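#onboarding

Welcome to the new folks! Below is a worked example of what a typical request in this channel looks like: someone posts a single protein sequence, and someone else replies with the predicted structure as tokens. Don't worry about understanding the tokens yet, we'll cover that in week two.

Example request:
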Amino acid sequence: AAVSAVDDQKTSVAGGILYMLQIAGGALGLSIATGLFLLLGKWFIKKKISTVLEKFSMKQQGLFDNFLTNTGSIKSLLVHFPIGIHEKLEFFLHQAFARAFFFNMLFTAVLAAIGALITLFFIKKRPEQVDY
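Example response:
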């Protein structure tokens, strides 16, 4: 609709600008979704692990972050904690990952629905083409 609304001489420029905006919007959306996922994951982990451990170090927090970003394994993470709580920690980590993913997808679905509603109600119809 955006490309067909301009003159024929400018359609390639309009198409290029539209494509560039789509790429930039996708990158921005991905960075927001990734940031939200990590923020929620860290929050869930701190909330759950505080029920098992009174406090944990910055190094242990970094290991949790590595697990969430898929750059660390659960085995390398559990080595830094007492053996008696490994099973609970593993459960908490998987639960935090799943909950963060769920709420992240819910957030992006709400944003997509808002975008669809804006498009439906606020974007005007394509102007009539005039033949010269």
